[in-house]
Every structure is written in structure tokens, then in C-alpha cells.
Write a structure and sequence with these properties.
The complex is a heterodimer of chains A (106) and B (478). Chain A contains five helices and no strands. With 106 residues, chain A is mainly α. With 478 residues, chain B is an alpha/beta fold. Classes of the chains: A mainly alpha (106), B alpha/beta (478).
């Protein structure tokens, strides 16, 4: 079993590096945000994790045409993922729209 | 064959390039979202990157046996249904209901991750259980568990914010949660290690994860929900990242992990603004200790004085500077438009009006700014806490609309108070303090506010919206 995990680590070494770097990047990018923007930022980040939709599309697209369990679960996943992406970005835009038009032209 | 190979190579490089664009836009988008001037553009940048990544996946992605994705009708059908419902829901929602909307969308993302893992696990069990890769299994299980917890938790958070689910303290909840957690880990190890790699075990894990998600959010008070949503938000990010591992997909990985870490930091920032530790919020101990502490403080409370509508109007009309401090009560009463009206009426009378915004006022940090912006209140009129405090001594009247804990002097001078150390708006430096509340009930911290009993303070009871309307009418007649 150890060998299996070792092999897994070696094959996924690059991905693991991306993960570590992304963690630090996420912290860096966010840590100087004014509290005014906390809500839109949370909402925007919420839309970004909707990227899980890509997994749903892959599941859906590679399902056998007669495998109805996979088709139905995949379809639900695509619908829910799209809700997350589209709803998330639209809600964030609505929030920020109101900030924008009221911004002082300094 | 060679031709096909070149085609695959070309398409694959375009696909990966699109994913690279997606990752970059997510980073840029988050970065831009954290500055007021570029925030809106940042959101659009991220959305554009997402669209590119989605389209590239649909048309360029190839499965293990080199064929393109199929079932286009299902895919586009799903995108259409989700897109239409998502747009309508996001456009229609009231600004005050924003937090529950975010929670709901977060839950759908979690559910999406959960469903993906379910299909992938089924696939393994049906097709080639003998060549299962342990690492692969581990990723599927982790993605499924985190996605499910996030989904179930978000649904409860949504229900609570929408007022459909009441706060409940379940006796022994911590022990039950611990047992559930141990159960999830134990079963997952058994499943991944190969002792019990079966469908029933997998679904048992998902069921436990769902119950855990529900019980985890259940005891947390409604006003702490933003912190919980932010935490669940980062959970969903991590679940998406596991999907990235599963499909060796860089954009899912970067997007998911970015949100995971940024969401965690945001959660901590929110907790800091409320001067509470995350542990404190999650254990719900604030809510638990509520009744006793409030009752004890009440006896020593003393007397408060009420002020009539007419007196309030007079006081404000003849002031030279009025500071409005909006809070949770204003958001609940949806009184932001009426509040703006009051501001206009006062300014016509030559009164200088500004808003003092505490970082955690409202239902979410920054929520007050969004609400007041919706009501066309000028951005310059919204003072951050430090600026508001600087101007406090030159202010004649402070009008507190449904805010409580953020103006509680105990945070400054009572070390035994649970909110001791939290930065507050120091309203007592002003000449008069008028507090609008629905009743004398304590705020969500569950502690008595001595401010209400101080000599400078007068109470104006009633629903924020109604009180403001009457106040506006009163002022117009003057």
C-alpha cells in the first residue's frame, strides 16, 4: 500500500506543487481586502469554485448513452454546477454594480 | 493515424492553453475583487475565464480512448436549465437576502462535487474494480465527503438565514459530531484500504457526511452564519480541487484551491472583525451561554428613558451634524431606502449627515455598504469605523438603527464581557444618542448593552422602517 501511495505522489507531484503554491497565492491575494468588500469577495469566490462544473461536464460527456444513472446524476451535476457559476457571478455583479455607480470620481 | 495524432496534439494544447487562461483570470479576478475600484471588472474577468474553460472542455476535451465528449444535448440542456434559473434567482433576489443566496449557490457547488464523485465511484465499481488505484479512490472519497458536508451545511445555513429553520441546541451535539467524524474517517479508511470497497459503504459515508454537515451548522446562531458560509465556501473550493486531481485538470485545481485558501483567510478576517475565534463561532458557545448571562445582567440594568418621535425630529432638525449607525435591525426591516430619505430631508434642512459603518454591521461584513449603496446613498457618506470615531465628538446626534453589539461600551471597559476587546463605534463621545430598537432584547451576542441606560441615551422603540417613515413625515412638517 505504501508503494501505491508513493507512486501516486510521484505521478501527481506537479499537481501537488500547484496546490501548495495556490494556497499561498490565495492567502496573499486576499489578506489586504477592506471589510467593505468582504461580502462581494465571498460571493465572487463562491462563483469561482463553480469551476467544479468542468468535472460535471466531463462526467456527463463521457457517460455511456445507455447508462441512465450516470446520465441523470451527471445532468443534475451540470445543472447545479451551472447554478453555482452563473448565479454566483450575476449576484456578485449586482452587488458591485451598486458600488460602482456611486464611486467618487477622484 | 499520424494525422489524428497531430490533431489531438493541437487540440490538447489549445485546451490546456484555455485552462491556463482560466487559472490566470481566477487569480487576477480575486486580486481585483479585493480593491474597490477594480472589483466589478475583476468579477467579469473571472467570469470570462470560466466561460473559456467551460467551452474548451465541451469541445476539446478528450477521454482516455481519445474520443471527444458526447451527450451534447444533455450537457447543453443542463447548462441552459442551470443558467436560466441561476440568472433569474440572482436578478430577483432582494439585496437583504443576499447572504442566503450566496449560501444556496455554495450548496449547489458542493452538491455538484458530491454527484461527480458518486458517478466516478459507480464507474469504478462497475467497470474495473480490480485495477482500482488507492490514490484515485482516496480523492473520490475526500471530494465526496467535503462536497456533501458543504452541501448539507449550506442548505441549513440557507434555511436559517431565510428564517425557515430555527436555532436549535442539540444536547451532546459535540459528542455526536465527534462520533460522526470518527465514523466518516473510519469507514473512509476501510474503503480506500480495500477492506470494504463497496457501494453500501460509500453511500454510508455520504449519509454520515450529510448528517455531520447538518449538525455542524445547526447550533450556530443566525448572525454567525456569514462566517459559516465563508467556511463552507472554502470547503466547496477544496471539493472542487479534488475534482481537479481526479481529472488531472489544472483549472479546477487552481480555482478550487484558490477559493479554499482565500475563503479560509476571509473566514478568519470576519472572525477578527467580530473579535471572536473561529472555534468560538463553530462551537456556538456564544449562543449557548445566552439566556443565563442576559438574565443576570438585566437585573442590574437600571432604567432607560424613551424619546418621542416629535422630540427626535426636533433634535435632529436643529443639529448641525447627524451620524447614522445602521445595523442588523435596519437590514431585517429593509429600511435602507427610508433611511436615505431621512438623510435627504435632513440635508434639505442644512444638517450634515453621514453614516458610521462598523465592519461587521448587518448580516455579513460589508453588507451595510451594499444595502446603502442600493438605496443610492453616496459612497463618500459611508464612514469607516475609525473615521466615524474621529468625527464623533463634533457630532450632535447619533441615530442608531438596529445596531447593538457594535456600539456596546462593554467591549471597551468590561473585561468580563464576551465581546471585550472588539473595536466599537464610540457613540458616547457625541452629544445625544438615540437608539432605535424593536425592544429591549439584547443583540446576538446575548449581552445587555449598558449604553441604553446611560444618561446621554434615549430609546426610540419600533420597527426601523416604520420609525424612519414617521420621522421623515414629522421632519417634513417642520
Amino acid at each position: 500500500m505504501f508503494q501505491e501511495f508513493a507512486a501516486f505522489f510521484i505521478t501527481n507531484y506537479r499537481l501537488i506543487t500547484i496546490v501548495i503554491l495556490s494556497i499561498f497565492l490565495g492567502i496573499e491575494v486576499i489578506s489586504r481586502v477592506p471589510s467593505v468588500l468582504h461580502t462581494p469577495l465571498m460571493s465572487g469566490a463562491n462563483a469561482i469554485h463553480g469551476v467544479v462544473i468542468i468535472g460535471a461536464i466531463i462526467v456527463m460527456g463521457s457517460a455511456e448513452p445507455n447508462d441512465f444513472v450516470a446520465l441523470i446524476l451527471g445532468f443534475l451535476a451540470v445543472v447545479l454546477g451551472t447554478l453555482n457559476v452563473v448565479g454566483g457571478f450575476v449576484v456578485t455583479d449586482r452587488m458591485l454594480e451598486m458600488f460602482g455607480k456611486k464611486k467618487p470620481k477622484k | 493515424m499520424n494525422e489524428l495524432f497531430q490533431k489531438v496534439l493541437a487540440e490538447n494544447s489549445i485546451l490546456l492553453f484555455c485552462y491556463l487562461i482560466g487559472s490566470i483570470t481566477f487569480i487576477l479576478g480575486l486580486k481585483m475583487l479585493s480593491h474597490p475600484a477594480s472589483a466589478r471588472k475583476g468579477n467579469l474577468v473571472a467570469a470570462a475565464g470560466m466561460l473559456i474553460a467551460i467551452l474548451a472542455t465541451i469541445f476539446l476535451y478528450r477521454t482516455e480512448n481519445m474520443s471527444h465528449l458526447g451527450n451534447y444535448a444533455w450537457i447543453f440542456g443542463g447548462l441552459l436549465v442551470g443558467g436560466v434559473i441561476g440568472t433569474l434567482a440572482a436578478k430577483k433576489v432582494q439585496m437583504t437576502a443576499m447572504p442566503e443566496m450566496v449560501s444556496l449557490f455554495n450548496g449547489t457547488g458542493g452538491a455538484c462535487a458530491m454527484l461527480i464523485s458518486m458517478v466516478e465511484f459507480n464507474k469504478i465499481m462497475e467497470h474495473h474494480p480490480e485495477e482500482m488505484h488507492r490514490g484515485h479512490l482516496l480523492i473520490i472519497v475526500l471530494g465526496a465527503v467535503i462536497g456533501t458536508v458543504s452541501f448539507a451545511g449550506s442548505m441549513i445555513a440557507w434555511g436559517k438565514l431565510a428564517g425557515k429553520i430555527k436555532d436549535k441546541t442539540i444536547p451532546g451535539a459535540q459528542i455526536i459530531n465527534f462520533l460522526l467524524f470518527a465514523g466518516i474517517i473510519g469507514l473512509s479508511i476501510a474503503l480506500v484500504a480495500g477492506f470494504a470497497t463497496t457501494l453500501p459503504v460509500f453511500y454510508a459515508i455520504l449519509t454520515l457526511a450529510a448528517i455531520y454537515g447538518i449538525l455542524f451548522v445547526m447550533p450556530i446562531g443566525g448572525a454567525d452564519m456569514p462566517v459559516v458560509i465563508s467556511l463552507l465556501n472554502s470547503f466547496t473550493g477544496v471539493a472542487a480541487a479534488f475534482g481537479g486531481f481526479l481529472y488531472d485538470n489544472p483549472v479546477m485545481l487552481t480555482g478550487g484551491i484558490l477559493v479554499g485558501s482565500a475563503g479560509t483567510i476571509l473566514t478568519i478576517l470576519m472572525c477578527n472583525a467580530m473579535n471572536r475565534s473561529l472555534k468560538n463561532v463553530l462551537l456556538g458557545s456564544f449562543g449557548g451561554a445566552k439566556p443565563g448571562a442576559a438574565g443576570a445582567a438585566k437585573e442590574g440594568g437600571g432604567t432607560y428613558k424613551e424619546i418621542s418621535m416629535n422630540d427626535t425630529a426636533t433634535l435632529m432638525a436643529y443639529a448641525s451634524k447627524v451620524l447614522i449607525i445602521p445595523g442588523y435591525g435596519l437590514a431585517v426591516a429593509q429600511a435602507q431606502h427610508t433611511c436615505h430619505e431621512l438623510e435627504k430631508v435632513l440635508e434639505e434642512k442644512g444638517v450634515e449627515v453621514a453614516y458610521g459603518i462598523h465592519p461587521v454591521a448587518g448580516r455579513m461584513p460589508g453588507h451595510m455598504n451594499v444595502l446603502l449603496a442600493e438605496a443610492d446613498v453616496l459612497y463618500e457618506k459611508l464612514l469607516e469605523m475609525e473615521d466615524a470615531n474621529d468625527q464623533m465628538s463634533s457630532t450632535n446626534v447619533v441615530l442608531i438603527l438596529g445596531a447593538n453589539d457594535v456600539v456596546n461600551p462593554a467591549a471597551k471597559d468590561d473585561p468580563s464581557s464576551p465581546i471585550y476587546g472588539m473595536p466599537i463605534l464610540e457613540v458616547e463621545k457625541a452629544e445625544h444618542v438615540i437608539v432605535n430598537k424593536r425592544s429591549m432584547k439584547p443583540g446576538y451576542a446575548g449581552i445587555e448593552n449598558e449604553l441604553f441606560f446611560r444618561p446621554k441615551t434615549s430609546m426610540l422603540f419600533g420597527d426601523a422602517k416604520k420609525v424612519l417613515q414617521e420621522l421623515v413625515t414629522e421632519l417634513k412638517q417642520m
